[in-house]
Write a structure and sequence with these properties.
The protein is α/β, with parallel strands linked by helices and 416 residues long. Helices cover 29% and strands 21% of the residues. The protein has 13 helices and 20 strands. The strands form five sheets. It has an eight-stranded mixed beta sheet, with helices on both faces. The chain has a four-stranded mixed beta sheet with strand order 3-2-7-8. It has a four-stranded mixed beta sheet with strand order 19-16-15-20. α6 links the parallel β10 (186-190) and β11 (217-221). The longest helix has 16 residues, at 305-320.
Length: 416
């Protein structure tokens, strides 16, 4: 882990190149495996669940779907089997507005599938997941079969460490994509450490660190850094071990996220921390991908570091408050308004199921201040709207001020 790599010189996404590649320019291209997911019809062990609902899952395609739903042009590059599951994957992802023209169908290998229980994957007990992905079509991705022209026509290329664990060919592909060369898109890399995919933790750590060093923008959780790299000293310690990327995003669970960013090689980092809003969680799966999508959306729009993190938190909160790992993001105007809250109002924010509809339903009064939903007045809404921004009311008898809240309540947590 002492190996060093040239530091990144790409700090912001350039305009997507045009030309005769056969693929239109895109804001973001993501590459990786997507699988058909079978979600239990009720809580319990896999042995006891009588039926499952079909969905889709894949870190990179989740990011593409979220960005397309948020109004960006997005392409997913992957490989599926020439089977019904592969057809379902491609059709579902395309239904979010994602360009799937670069997806290849393998006539001899199947589409990957997996089953999971309803429990949180981070829970100490109760969570089960069973993958049927060995020898899948996606595991055959390599520099020889992936259409590179579909990748080069992007402002941002988004990949993750999951792909590197699928096969030696996939690892070779990832190493090639994270090799610094002139003219490549801004490379975004989500570490996405999954211990069960790797034969040895030491190998995983070395591989993932090497790939991260070749990227321009890296997402990593502080828990991932602890497990994969044995780094436990917080965001600054992670940055010390990973100085090469121009932008490093360290996700800190319920605390929020810290971003280290520099605008030119050799310059000192600008360090930005933003706390996560409080969220009433329905299901935790997919929040990390949604956070990455929100941050990348802010990056594409040239927003400030603070706004990029807040948009990541808001996109994650949208997914956390639904049962699946994909959902419609908040409307851009609503997300912009929430991301622009002052620190006090942001700290009072609490988001529950249905919050994206709740925010959109608030109408703007003639004076510019959003009004409460129909049938409610200021006294019945936690946190009144004044001057176009929500202001928490003082509590009764010296009690703490209530939080600004949207939607219903379920399990309470923070965005990751």
């Amino acid at each position: 882990m002492s190996e060093t790599v040239q530091t990144a010189t790409t700090t912001e996404p350039a305009p997507a190149p045009g030309g005769d590649s056969g693929f239109p320019a895109a804001d973001v291209v993501s590459l990786g495996e997507s699988m058909v997911t079978f979600l239990p019809s009720r809580p319990g062990r896999l042995a006891d669940v009588p039926s499952f609902d079909r969905g889709i899952g894949g870190a990179e395609s989740n990011v593409a779907c979220a960005l397309a739903a948020a109004g960006h042009s997005a392409r997913w590059v992957g490989r599926v089997g020439a089977d019904g599951f592969g057809e379902h994957l491609v059709d579902t992802i395309a239904g979010y507005g994602v360009d799937t023209s670069a997806v290849r169908r393998d006539p001899t290998r199947p589409t990957g599938v997996y089953f999971r229980t309803a429990a949180d994957r981070d829970a100490d007990t109760g969570f089960e997941v069973v993958y049927y992905r060995a020898g899948s079509a996606a595991s055959a991705m390599s520099p020889k079969v992936v259409p590179y022209e579909a990748l080069r026509s992007a402002r941002i290329l988004h990949v993750s460490g999951i792909t590197a664990a699928l096969s030696p060919d996939c690892l070779a592909l990832m190493r090639d994509l994270t090799t610094r060369r002139p003219g490549r898109p801004l490379v975004s890399f989500d570490v996405n450490y999954r211990a069960h995919l790797w034969a040895a933790a030491d190998e995983a750590g070395q591989v993932l660190l090497g790939l991260a060093r070749g990227a321009d923008l890296v997402f990593v959780g502080d828990d991932e850094a602890a497990h994969a790299w044995s780094i436990t000293g917080g965001p600054a310690a992670i940055r010390a071990a990973l100085p090469e990327p121009a932008t490093l995003v360290v996700k800190q669970g319920s605390a929020g996220a810290t971003v280290f960013a520099r605008t030119a090689e050799g310059e000192a980092d600008t360090v930005t921390f933003e706390p996560a809003p409080r969220v009433d969680v329905v299901a935790p799966v997919g929040a990390g991908d949604a956070f990455a999508a929100g941050f990348l959306s802010g990056t594409l729009r040239g927003l400030s570091g603070e706004a990029r993190i807040r948009h990541g938190h808001l996109m994650a909160a949208a997914v956390l408050t639904v049962a699946g790992d994909l959902c419609a993001p908040p409307a851009r105007a609503d997300a912009d308004r929430l991301a622009a809250l002052d620190d006090t109002a942001w700290g009072a924010l609490r988001l529950g199921p249905g919050w994206t509809d709740d925010v959109s339903a608030r109408e703007t009064a003639p004076g510019g201040a959003p009004t409460p939903p129909a049938g409610q007045d200021d006294a019945s809404v936690p946190g009144s709207w004044r001057g176009g921004a929500p202001v928490p009311e003082a509590g009764h008898n010296g009690a703490p001020a209530p939080q600004l809240r949207y939607g219903g309540a379920s399990q309470e947590a923070h965005t990751p």
